[in-house]
Amino acid sequence: xxxxxxxxxxxxxxxxxxxxxxxxxxxxEVQDAADxxxxxxxxxxxxxxxxxxxxxxxxxxxxxxSAKILSPDKTxxxxxxxxxxPMADMVTASGLRKMKARHPDAAVVCYVNSSAEVxxxxxxxxxxxxxLKVVESLENKQVIFIPDKNLGSYIASKVRGKxxxxxxxxxxxxxxxxxxxxxxxxxxxPDAKILMxxxxxxxVLKLADFIGSTSEIIRYAGExxxxxxIIGTEEGVLHLLKKRNPDKxxxxxxxxxxxxxxxxxxxxxVHNALLHMQHQIHVDEAVRIKAMKAxxxxxEIK
Length: 302
Ligand code: SF4
Fold this sequence. Notes:
The protein is an alpha/beta fold.
């Protein structure tokens, strides 16, 4: 059944001249059906550069929307209509406008986990891979960082000579990791390295051996000599980690590290997306042009 579904997806993909992009947090079957698997940063680059006419984005809404902003002439499909990101919903364009009015000299750095309207109100976007470089690239002494308070605090601890004004947003998945869980797993695997995503809470991050974006965690886990590695980000990354490092043991830092929205997409949804050309993403053109500037400014930073 799985095989025939995969074959049918391949056939439709050819017929539609489509590319399937999947985030590292997707379920294994969806990752295996994708042409490219990556984090927000690498997927937004691929979305901007692909020649395919159709982009099937297996992830959450803001990711597919970013692909549409960067590739307006392409058809961008989100297989599950209500796969959203609660963090992205924690900031609105009107809320951001009010904050900008209170800090008129500040530049706005917007984590890609945000709506097109919010990006349109921002100076530049960032991902967790490039957030530090993005903030450092700005001449402004004051920077409003939205919407993730934890990533913003982490960047504020690294950057010199800037005031980072934080928004009160957070990732409901990474926020679940507790200090006690880290202490407990450290006792269970004293020889293991703990790798964490900066969306975790600051007191939890203090206990990490390495802090990085999803792709940085995957790269680092492959490079270090340790055989036992504890992963402090969404459990979907374990699929690629185990595939690439069959000689290593990976443990999930917390059972809470499962994003319900990222797990909504099934192989059947990918098939239906290609079959019925659903669910198409649309972005208002005036909003898109402004949001594209913020995304393109980010992509220019090497
Ligand atoms: S893992 Fe967190 S930031 Fe990513 S989609 Fe899920 S809720 Fe949003």
